[in-house]
Amino acid sequence: xxxxxxxxxxxxxxxxxxxxxxxxxxxxxxxxxxxxxxxxxxxxxxxxxxxxxxxxxxxxxxxxxxxxxxxxxxxxxxxxxxxxxxxxxxxxxxxxxxxxxxxxxxxxxxxxxxxxxxxxxxxxxxxxxxxxxxxxxxxxxxxxxxxxxxxxxxxxxxxxxxxxxxxxxxxxxxxxxxxxxxxxxxxxxxxxxxxxxxxxxxxxxxxxxxxxxxxxxxxxxxxxxxxxxxxxxxxxxxxxxxxxxxxxxxxxxxxxxxxxxxxxxxxxxxxxxxxxxxxxxxxxxxxxxxxxxxxxxxxxxx
Length: 302
Description:
- By secondary structure, the protein is α+β, with helices and mostly antiparallel strands.
- The chain has 2 domains: 2-190, Jelly Rolls, CATH 2.60.120; 209-302, Orthogonal Bundle (Arc Repressor Mutant, subunit A).
- The chain contains 12 helices and 9 strands.
- It is elongated and about 90 Å long.
- The termini are far apart.
């Protein structure tokens, strides 16, 4: 009841901001499963708050339904991580035109103050504190849907917070922080693997279309990553910058065509996207140390 009164005071204080925490106070009250609005006893609360993280409430094995479209979209005064084990989940954020749906194994992370509506989830942990704010500043916490698998990864934290005593509550805090960081690292690894796969597809496409001049912006858009990350990834995969790679690729194709001896220098320059043969000749000479004509003569002699 104390926790409910606390949430009610928050609601009252934020009434001018239309902060809706009605789902926490009422919507899951009558459902099957386990709901705990005050997992930290009042006598421990001061020590827990000092630790930097407070688990405000949790829901175990309780589905969350969408709110009626006639009701205003909600926002909470704390962080939430909610995991879906079965069925189909959905997420709607203010400013987003489309409802995002996701399959079992995904989780929703929502930050304080974010207008959102999500549902069809079976387990949730809501928390607040300076440690959570620090995780947000570090990029660990942000509003998103992320895949974390079908294992009930929130359950060990819930199980620990059920245990009596300050030590168990502190352990639950540490377990939650560890889980959030672990999930963040997994997301980065998946993003990294996907980005590398996209880069390999890009390199293949560039090689098959040597006449096109790619900009860094076009390449980063193709790979769905930032320009800075593209440059980093390019160097890790090729040992070169994007510009160096394009230059070297064009010169490799030029060398192959010169050795074949069937195309004129002007035709080679045009096929590689150079505006005029003089630009191609200068670039080829700078990068290889010899002119296209002398390069062809050398290979014809040998």
